[in-house]
Amino acid sequence: MNAGAIGHVVGLGAIIAVSALAVGCAHDAVAPQTPVTETPPTPSPQTTSSTTTTSGTVPASSNVAVSADLLKACSINLNNEEKSPKFEFDESVLRGDDRSVLDQIARCVTTGPLQGRALHLIGRADPRGEAEYNMALGSSRASSVGTYLGSLGVPATQLMQTSRGKLDATGTDEAGWQLDRRVDVE
Fold first, then answer.
1. Helix axes 96-110, 131-151, angle to 10 degrees
2. Which residues contact 25 (CB under 8 A, 6 or more apart)?
3. Beta bridge mates, 185
4. Which residues of 144-167 are buried (b: 16+ CB within 10 A; e: fewer)?
5. What's the CATH fold of domain 51-185?
């Protein structure tokens, strides 16, 4: 995502928040904070062979997809790049394999090559359910990732959180819906 795109997202009312890692009520509102306007990571010449989602992210763990630029710049080692990113239906709880990927991202932006850079956390949901509920669920999922990154030392000022809810969902069955239920880290 380039600086103009980040500005566009921020201009559209991107929500920045970090909340408790425990699953909260998906209907709880998230209070907006001041957006971060740092430039996104510049990709390095390394390559990553994997599939990408329709949003241009690479499935990295059960619940997390990471932008290809971030994978390259941080030299993130994925145990299984082909694994489908997924949250359980109506859940926003992180799993162990999510934490492994997020640990690598946190090191990269706290002490690594992207030290001090901002991350954009985009929560997503499958197409089932009401639009408002799915926006809140996507926000809760992004918040779970943000909270975990915060516990690893990533300052809240470096975390931009938004929700796309079911806006970009493409699944039509359980396998497809699992791909829709994720958080993209860019």
1. 60
2. none
3. 66, 121
4. bbbbbbbeeebeeebbbbbbbbbe
5. 60s Ribosomal Protein L30; Chain: A; (3.30.1330)
What is the token pair recorded at 183? Answer: 């958080």
Chain segment 147-169, per-residue pLDDT in tens = 999 999 999 999 999 999 999 99
The burial of 9, by beta-carbon neighbours within 10 Å (0-12 exposed, 13-18 middle, 19 or more buried), is given as: middle
DSSP character for 15? B
In single-letter form, the type of residue at position 115 comes to: Q
Query: Are 154 and 119 in contact, with CB atoms under 8 Å apart?
Result: yes
Average pLDDT of the chain is 73
CA dist 134 and 140 (Å) reads 10
Q: How far apart, in whole angstroms, are the C-alpha atoms of residue 52 and residue 7?
A: 24
| Angle at the Cα of 11 from the Cα atoms of 32 and 179, rounded to 5 degrees | 75
